[in-house]
Amino acid sequence: PHSLFLHLCIYKHPNLFSFVQQTKSNSSSPTTIIIKTHKKELKQRNTQNQKKRSMTKVHPKFPNTCEESLCDSKAAVVLTVWKKSLLFNCDGFTVYNSNGDLVFRVDNYMNSPKDNIVLMDASGLPLLSIRRKKLSFGDCWMVYDGETERNPIFTANKNVNILTNRRTLAWISAKKTMWYEIEGSYGQRSCKMLDERRNKKKVAEIKKKEAMVGGVAFGKDVFKLIVESETEPRVAMAFTIILDQMFRSY
């Protein structure tokens, strides 16, 4: 009976193993045999549980920075953009690369103001801050490096003259110089980002994402962002967020 009672106690409290073994080190009683046997069984059980956890991992290991996994390639980068946050009670974006790795994320609480949006990498490191310019004519947004509040990298202005120019959605400038023009329809998830400095060369594109089997579209909440090698993916994603703010009701 004593051995059975000790057997149950050790099973419920594995930390007692070392103490019992020290007190019973010179004993060859059945109690010591039971302790050693169940210590080995628990070790095997822990090993099996670790294998199961590794097999059921949803996401692979995240890269430390987006530049290491996206900006070194000379080929175009194809990203899958999902208009949904991974956090509860938040809206935003979740962005994966072609390998299924999480590379960008945006998490905004439902009741928080949408005038300040932070684009983060997979680990939550702030990459760019996107802020609406106050007291400006039309819809104007500023893009900052990290979480700084001075010296914006880009300024995005919405095209308000849709009667004479329906193709252009927005213009992107840097230091009062026009850099990019965005054309197309964000509501249809069909946009092109053109470089004004390179004779309107296409540097990024938003397209509908279709299923691998059957060619069925996912809808407006899931789409592709194709970024050419000369453009930083985080910059293209920042412009995508700005388009969503400008035309989210379309």
From TrEMBL:
Family stated for the protein in its record: Belongs to the LOR family.
Name of protein: Protein LURP-one-related 8
Organism field: Noccaea caerulescens (Alpine penny-cress)
